[in-house]
Amino acid sequence: MNYDFSDKEFNLFVEIHTLMGTFAKENDLETKDAEKSEKNTRRALALLSRTPYLTLGIEKADNYNGLLTLMGGMETIAAASPSLFLSIETSTRIFGRILSAWGSASQKEKLLPALLNGQIIGAVGLSEDAMNVDNDPLMTTAVMDGDSAIISGHKQYVVNGPVADWLAVAGRLDGKNAIFLVEKGTQGLSIGGKAATLGYEGVAISNLMFENCAIASSQVIFPENDKTMLTTLKLWENQILIGASLGLMKRAFESAKVYAKKHKTGGKPIIAYQEVGFKLAQMLTLFQASQLFAYKVAWAADAEPKDIESLTLCAKVFCTEAAEQVAGDAMKILGGSGFLSGNPVEEAFRCAKYGQIAGTSTEISRVKIGDSALGLMK
Ligand SMILES: Cc1cc2nc3c(=O)[nH]c(=O)nc-3n(C[C@H](O)[C@H](O)[C@H](O)COP(=O)(O)OP(=O)(O)OC[C@H]3O[C@@H](n4cnc5c(N)ncnc54)[C@H](O)[C@@H]3O)c2cc1C
Fold it and tell me: pLDDT of 57-77, one tens digit each?
């Protein structure tokens, strides 16, 4: 196992840090306005398409170390803007990977270049109300009518829902799990308005309704192994949430460190007080341990070991809980100023909660890790 990044990888991280850091300073990325969210996402995708970042995990890139390079990149972007990160990663790393891993040659040809050039935004509808721990059986279904698949169902909490050009929707067809590629504006598709959320306020999230929504059969994807489709989608989502946690910890720790050196009480910078120093030490320890864990699962995912699902869940539980603790401690260091809206620490604190709810929730992760330890996991 070697988690060292090469000079080429470091240069990529510096490039995307500079691009996204500048973009974050110049734009309101926590906007509650869906139109502005859309504009931000499109401009950020266009900027990133000038680098190899969007292709990581999708296309083989020379001298980059697969998902390990991607994890370092995700950490960098999530530290610059959690909202932009979630929007970009859902479009690229979930919608994009659905196409690259399972799409037909013509589906790839039609959508992948535009996605990787930052010309289109993708969204993924998996979650439905009252799903079980394995997310099955999906209640969204399609029936064939001539050369069309007619979709009916409902999806909730869809990142990029109101702003996406194309939606990848998980459902059932002919007794199998499938993905339906639905273009925005297709008759029978209704997209809800942007939901108000605790964190990630700059992300356009909505529900989707399908009522006799007809798509061409060429827009249906049947993954090679339909039984592992849902597990794989969750695995990709969990990898993103691990990357998000690293970014949240990085921004919270850095902000708290700078503040502790600058802010004085009783005539001394607060970093001189042992309690504050201990907090920073604990935050850094959690951040570093999370980084190592995240890099390990990214490295392992490329090698595809048998226990990758359980290993990723262990990392997700650890990193997402660490993110909440680090952001909470950072807020204590910032005192009253940390509690005021619109600073990186309170933003990290609000966003950190999401990591434990989304993807495979912390509770369900623990159930599955336990099952895996007992040899019960599918
Ligand atoms: C901001 C946001 C963005 C999202 N984006 C997307 C997206 O783009 N696409 C998408 O498809 N989905 C998305 N989701 C959905 C997300 O991935 C989760 O699937 C969803 O939030 C789960 O919520 P739920 O209300 O259905 O939880 P429930 O499954 O109803 O769970 C409620 C609580 O019960 C616990 N619980 C449930 N079952 C068990 C069990 N068997 N054992 C122990 N505990 C259990 C859970 O851990 C949780 O604490 C998003 C969610 C949010 C909040």
Answer: 998 777 788 899 999 999 999
In CATH, the number for domain 229-373 is 1.20.140.10
- CA–centroid distance, 361 to ligand 1, in Å, is 6
Q: What is the mean pLDDT of residues 316-322?
A: 98
Atom of ligand 1 nearest to the CA of 354: 53
Q: Where in the chain are all domains bearing CATH 1.20.140.10?
A: 229-373
**Residue 361 CB less than 6 A away from ligand 1:** yes
Q: What is the DSSP string of 289-332?
A: HHHHHHHHHHHHHHH--TTHHHHHHHHHHHHHHHHHHHHHHHHH
What band does 114 get if pLDDT is binned at 50, 70 and 90? very high
Q: What is the mean pLDDT of the segment spanning 350-368? A: 96
Q: Considering only the top CATH level, what class is 7-116?
A: mainly alpha
364 touches ligand 1 (CB under 6 Å)? yes
Bridge partners of 56, per DSSP, are none
CATH superfamily for 122-221 is Butyryl-CoA Dehydrogenase, subunit A, domain 2 (2.40.110.10)
154 lines ligand 1 (CB under 6 A): no
- What's the pLDDT score for residue 378? 58
Output the residue whose Cα is nearest ligand 1's atom 16: 358
Is residue 149 classed exposed, middle or buried when 0-12, 13-18 and 19+ CB atoms within 10 A define those classes? Answer: buried
Which atom of ligand 1 lies at the shortest distance from residue 90's CA?
8
Nearest Cα residue to atom 42 of ligand 1: 364
